[in-house]
Structures are given as C-alpha cells and as structure tokens.
Design a protein that fits this description.
single chain, 263 residues, alpha+beta, outer membrane lipoprotein receptor (LolB), chain A
Length: 263
C-alpha cells in the first residue's frame, strides 16, 4: 500500500525542486522590486563580493541529503533527495518518496540526463533544455551559485552595496535585462534573500537561512523559493539535512536497456 501511494504521489511531480524554481520565471507576470529604504552609506561592491565568496563553503566534492516541500496552488508534496556534487562539473540527484527512488538526474555544463523509473523512461537533453523550460538564460555556474547560496544575474562591477538607514545591508543591480536586489545579514554580511526581476516583469524570490559552519566556512541549510501571479501560487521549501565535504564521489547513472528514450 505504501509503495503505491508513494509512487502515485511522485507521479504528480513533473520536475525536481531546482528545475521547479527555474520554471517559476514562467509563472510570474508584471512585478516591481520593493522600494528601498534611503541609503546612508555606499561601500565597495568588490569587497562585499570577495567577502561572500571567501565566507561560503568551498569544496571539490559535496554529498548532501535534502527534504523538499512544495505547494503548487494549494497542492502539497513532500519528498527526499540525495545530492552529489562535483563543483564546476556535475550535479547528481536522486529523488524519492517513502524510500523508493522515482527520478535520478545528472546535470553537467553541457547536458541534463533524467531517469524516470516510475514510467521506465529516460531523457537526454543539452543544458539549454533548462533555459527553454525557464524562459531565460542561466548557466551551469549560476545554477551552482543558487545551490550554494550566492547571488546570480548581477554585474559585480555595476552593483551597488549599501548600508541602509535601518541598518540593513543590501546589494542592488539594475541591468539591461535583469534587476537583482539582495539583502544581507547585518552581522555576517551573507545573503538572506534575493529578488530577481527581468525586463518582461517576471520575478523570483529566494530566501537563504540557517547558516551553519562547515570546515571554517558558512553554508545556508535552507532555501525558500516563492512566486505567484493571478493564476498560480508556488512555494518550494528545500532544506539540507546533512552536508559532507568529500575527497571523491562516484556518480552512478546506468540507464536500464528496457527503458524508452523520450527525448
């Protein structure tokens, strides 16, 4: 009984959480970044980006376990994930419900491969598949930055880092195609939330919380992603339950010869 219930529920998930958050750009319409509190102090944007980069966890291999909760128009879904990560080269994920693996994914700078065990299918796509689904250009490095807790779609040279009148710290960038407003923790000066708006009015909000120290560096264990429009309301709460820096990891991805290739 549990197996059938778990598999039935899993079939309702069309994309794992990190792809789902990319799709949020498709589901949002006209929006504006919130008006900021008056700025009292401009500081070097280069120094704050250097501080963020040097403060966050650095690794070659990372193994982690996550729990993910999604709410799509009031329909809730919970599932677990194992992630293996070779920085700059590959992100491997296995998604399961009630202990049964339903989807396995491998992402590299060039490709995305998906094994759908529920329907005995598999997909092999270029990395641009994510861009087609998201309706925006995102690089493999930017995907890694979101998983790490860094900002994306921001020109470090043009961005402005400020301390506001209320004591909050903020980085703001207004570009030709994207605007990014990132708020920082006033003590650690690390991202706590990020709002990205493109020139067509699509908006994405990501919050980073529960920073922990690992090997002398910080890592945000929680991601809260929200988007909504007149038709849809989407919320994804992804929590890293365990992270471990490794010297080496293997990335098994054997496709059953009886599975059907969809793309």
């Amino acid at each position: 009984m549990y197996k059938k219930i778990g598999f039935y529920r899993f079939k309702k998930i069309h994309f794992p959480f990190f792809i789902a958050f990319l799709l949020l750009f498709q589901n949002c319409r006209t929006a504006k970044l919130a008006t900021t509190i008056p700025i009292t102090n401009h500081q070097s944007n280069q120094s704050i980006f250097s501080h963020i980069d040097s403060s966050l966890l650095n690794f070659k291999y990372l193994a982690s376990k996550l729990s993910v909760k999604t709410n799509l128009n009031g329909k809730q879904q919970n599932f677990n994930a194992n992630m293996k990560w070779k920085k700059n080269e590959q992100i491997w994920l296995s998604f399961s419900i009630l202990g049964f693996e339903g989807v396995r994914i491998s992402i590299t700078p060039d490709s995305i491969k998906i094994i759908d065990r529920l329907n005995k299918q598999f997909y092999i796509e270029p990395f641009s598949y994510l861009n087609e689904k998201a309706g925006m250009d995102i690089t493999f490095g930017e995907l890694e930055n979101i998983l790490l807790g860094k900002t994306i779609k921001m020109d470090n040279k043009s961005a402005i880092y400020s301390v506001l009148e209320n004591g909050n710290h903020q980085i703001k960038y207004d570009g030709a195609t994207f605007s990014n407003q990132t708020n920082l923790d006033s003590i650690m000066q690390l991202p706590v939330d990020m709002t990205i708006l493109d020139n067509s009015g699509r908006i994405l909000f990501v919050a980073f919380s529960n920073y922990v120290k690992k090997e002398g560096k910080f890592f945000s264990m929680n991601r809260l992603i929200k988007a909504n429009d007149m038709m849809n309301k989407i919320e994804i709460d992804a929590n890293y339950e365990q992270i471990e820096v490794k010297d080496f990891l293997e990335f098994p991805f054997q496709i059953n010869q009886n599975y059907t290739r969809v793309h």
